[in-house]
Every structure is written in C-alpha cells, then in structure tokens.
Design goal:
Elements lengths: L11 H20 L3 H17 L1 H12 L3 H27 L2 E3 L9 E8 L2 E5 L7 H12 L3 E5 L5 H14 L5 E4 L3 H7 L6 E5 L2 H12 L4 E5 L5 E4 L5 H13 L11 E5 L3 H16 L2 H4 L11 H16 L3 E4 L3 E2 L4 E2 L2 E4 L16 E7 L2 H10 L5 E5 L3 H10 L4 E4 L20 E2 L4 H7 L1 E8 L16 H14 L1
Parallel strand pairs: 3-4, 3-6, 4-5, 6-7, 8-9, 8-15, 9-14, 13-14, 15-16
Antiparallel strand pairs: 1-2, 2-18, 7-17, 10-13, 11-12
Length: 480
C-alpha cells in the first residue's frame, strides 16, 4: 500500500515522479486484466462504501453539515448505481465490436477494440467530494487504467476517508490518492499522463487543458455554467417550483447542474414566486429557519460565503429585488435560500455561474425572448424545460445547445448511468457515466484484417497502365 502524498512532503515532486513511474510500469499488466478481474475491483469499492456508510456520512457532516439522508441520495446512490451498471455490462463493452467493411474492402474483417489509455489523472472537486472522486475512478478501472486521484483540500474529512478507502483496496502502483493544495495539482499536471479527467470551474478547466496539451494528453472536462430552467405557459407552476427549489438548494446550491436561473412567462411570474416561497417553507421551514435546519447544508468555507454575499449585493445594487431570503449565519456558514426578482439580463449575477443558494427569476414575453437570453450566454451544462406542450419542448431543444436536458424535472439525469453526462463548449468536453465513461477512458483502436487476395493490391504504381486507369475510375464511380 502506498502512503497518501500531501503538499507538506519535502520531496513531493520526487514522490510524484516515483509514483507516476510505478504506475507506468504497472499499466501494461493492468491493461491485460479481464472483465471479471476489473469487476472484482469494483465490487471491492462497493463493499468498502457499504460497510463504511456511517463514517462517510460523518465525514460529509463535518465538511458540509450535510444530513445523512442527503449523503445517501447524492453521494452513495449515484456511485453504487454506477458500479452496478458497469459490472452488468462491462464484458459486453470490452468485447471487440465488429463493424461492416465498405464495398471497396469486401472480404476484410473490421473491428473496434477498446484498450485502456494507460495512466490517468482524476482531479476531483469539493462540492460532492466522495462520489465525484470515486465515480470517474469506476470508469477508469473498468477501462483497465492505472489512476492517480487528486482529492480536494477543501473537504478534508471526506478526502481523508476516501483516501483510506482507496489505500485499503489498491496498491499505489495501480490506484493512488494524492492530497494537498492547488500546487500539488499543478505539479501533477506537469507529468505526462495519458488522460486527465477534471471536474471544476471553466477557468481552472482551461488551465488543465493547457497543461495536458503540452503532453498531447486527452482530457475530460466536467465544468459548469449558467444552467437555465425555462417554463412555458403550459407548465404546472407548483410542480415546477417544487422541483426547481429542491434542485437549486440541495447542497446549498453547490451543484454544477443546479438550476442557475429561471425564465417564467411574465403573467405567471408572481404566482411562480409564491410557489417557490411555499416550497422553501415545506423543505426547510422558510428562509430564516433554514439557517438552523440540519437538512440544509453549509457552504464549503468562509471565502465562498463572502463571494456569494458580494454577488448578492452587486445584484441588488444593479436593480434586482430581494423576493425571498437573503439571511446569513456566519456561525453556521449558511446563506438562506434566496430568490431574486426583477433581474435584468445585464445584471452582474447573470454573467457567471452562481454556485450557491441564490436563484434569479426572470419574466419574459414571448418564447423568442427567453431563447434569445439563453443563447446569448455560453452553452450551459444542463438545461431544464417545464412544459406540457410537446411542440414548445421540441422547439426549445432544437433552438438551444446544452450538455444535457431534463423535461419537467431537474438534476435527476446525473444519476442515470444509461445516459451520457457532460457539457458542450465552455461547460465541458467529453462524457461520463456508463459506457460513455468507459469509452472516455479507452482508446478505440481500429483493426482491419485483409484476406490474402484483395482488389486494393492492384491499385499501385505504375499508374500509366490503361487497365489500371479504368480500374481506378470504376473504383471512384462504383465503390466510393
């Protein structure tokens, strides 16, 4: 078992280089593992998770004040579901995939074979520090890679527990965990990993991609953005308000796919705000009581709370109206569920992802106005539609771009391992979960086997032979 490397180690660079060398040496052997061997490793992760539920819940309580039930729903369920899905299908995914040969290559055998990328780096975030560290690791192991996982320094209790779990299961030459400040992540990015999987902000994602480019390493970037929720006139307002309120304020809004703002037909705006007020009262007892409610999470650290207070102040100074909430508990490190009304598109709060419990609500006239606003911003990680009108739903889907979309709900797509998860443009590159995560950590190797006699062997110089000129012409005419 390898020790966890921290930023306090005097020889951290040498340690990281040694660790990388160990994994590079082991990667060829790990690449040859069978589906059964990889599944056995995933089963080990699942057993460790299931036997340490109380410890995991306690760690997340210490880092976020997160209720144990929310830990089960947002950290454990997605991870265990992913493992179960992978183990059910892995043998099929690993099998060579036969593809048809084009007419010009009649008689050839064509396959796509999935091979591991080699040694991969997973940089996990602080907002869901358990499942966003181990979830990508599941895909990396399924694909046959060695992996280094950089855990977040902002969730120390959960990161320490995740490190212990991984170290009990794997030698450092196969899977290793690294803890420390951002400087450790920067040192890791100097190493020639074969693939980098990063979850975090677009700003840091650009730095990760730039560092990976120096080694021509492939990347998966799970970023974020301003994910809108669009209601049309047919949307059931109470249902929409209930689901949006839940999805926005779970984990105190520190969720990359949380609804970032809501677009509501202007005639229904006041009614929607009232429905959100009722939903907050039902979930947390109201904004004021949420500050002492154990079901409502804390913000990750004081700096994040200060940033959100500044964001709220700037939005109000620019003309937004505080419709709900706004209360703060410095002692509990909480900002109450907060809803803003009369938010203009040029308000500062509409420029960057909020990543906290502040929800702008914007009224619109025609659907064209709502679509224009959504399309004026970078493509979001998620887009939510609330509608009973299929034609309006299809129009929104056709005229917008987003990483993923849910109709008449929010957030729940993340836990469906049958769907690809990931962004587009500034909200991300690549896909995760299920077969898509397996493919992301795999090289798709083309294999073509020619028979002994093949027509393509005739298409060689010298080209001045009349019959060859005709054959090439026929090839272009009939086989292209």
């Amino acid at each position: 078992m390898g020790p966890t490397i921290t930023s306090g180690a005097a020889t951290v660079s040498a340690d990281l280089q040694t660790l990388f060398h160990l994994q590079r040496q082991a990667s060829r052997r790990i690449a040859q593992t069978t589906a059964a061997e990889r599944i056995s490793k995933l089963d080990g992760i699942r057993r460790e998770v299931e036997s340490n539920l109380a410890a995991i819940q306690a760690a997340l309580k210490a880092d976020f004040g997160k209720p144990p039930e929310e830990v089960l729903l947002t950290e454990i369920f997605p991870l265990v579901s992913e493992i179960n899905h992978v183990r059910q299908h892995l043998a099929q995914w690993m099998a060579p995939r036969v593809v048809p040969a084009s007419t010009a290559f009649t008689g050839a055998s064509c396959q796509v074979r999935y091979q591991p990328r080699g040694v991969v780096l997973i940089i996990s975030p602080w907002n869901y520090p358990f499942q966003l560290a181990l979830g990508p690791l599941v895909s990396a192991i399924a694909a046959g890679n060695c992996a280094v996982v950089k855990l977040s320094e902002f969730s120390p209790h959960t990161s320490a527990l995740a490190a212990e779990l991984v170290e009990r299961l794997f030698p450092a030459s196969e899977v290793a965990v690294v803890q420390g400040e951002k400087e450790v992540a920067q040192e890791l990015l100097q190493l020639p990993f074969d693939h980098v999987f990063f979850t975090g902000s677009p700003a840091v994602g650009r730095q990760v991609m730039s560092a990976a480019a120096r080694h021509l390493a492939s990347v998966t970037l799970e970023l974020g953005g301003k994910s809108p929720a669009i209601l049309d006139a047919s949307a059931p307002l109470d249902h929409a308000a209930n689901r949006i309120t839940w999805g926005k304020f779970i984990n105190a809004g520190q969720t990359c796919v949380a609804p970032d703002y809501v677009l509501v037909p202007e005639p229904h705006r006041e009614e929607f705000l009232s429905a959100v007020q009722r939903a907050i009262e039902r979930l947390y007892g109201g904004p004021e009581k949420s500050l002492g409610n154990p079901d409502y999470c804390r913000l990750i650290h004081d700096r994040h709370l200060n940033r959100l207070q500044e964001t709220l102040s700037a939005a109000l100074a620019a003309g937004a109206r505080l419709a709900i909430g706004g209360q703060v508990s410095l002692e509990e490190r909480k900002l109450a569920p907060t809803v803003l009304d009369q938010v203009q598109p040029n308000n500062p709060i509409m420029q960057e992802e909020i990543f906290g419990p502040i929800l702008p609500v914007i009224g619109y006239g025609g659907l064209e106005q709502a679509l224009e606003l959504v399309n004026s911003l970078p493509h979001p990680l998620a887009l939510y539609i609330f509608s009973r009108d299929r034609s309006k739903t299809e129009r929104i889907l056709a005229e917008t771009r987003a990483g993923d979309t849910v109709v008449n709900d929010v957030v729940v797509h993340y836990s469906n391992s049958s769907l690809p998860f990931g962004g587009v443009g500034t909200s991300g590159i690549g896909k995760a979960h299920g077969v898509y995560g397996f493919q992301e950590f795999s090289h798709q190797r083309a294999v073509l086997v020619q028979p002994r006699l093949t027509a393509t062997a005739l298409l060689t110089p010298p080209y001045d032979r009349p019959w060859l000129k005709k054959l090439i012409g026929w090839t272009l005419k009939y086989f292209s």
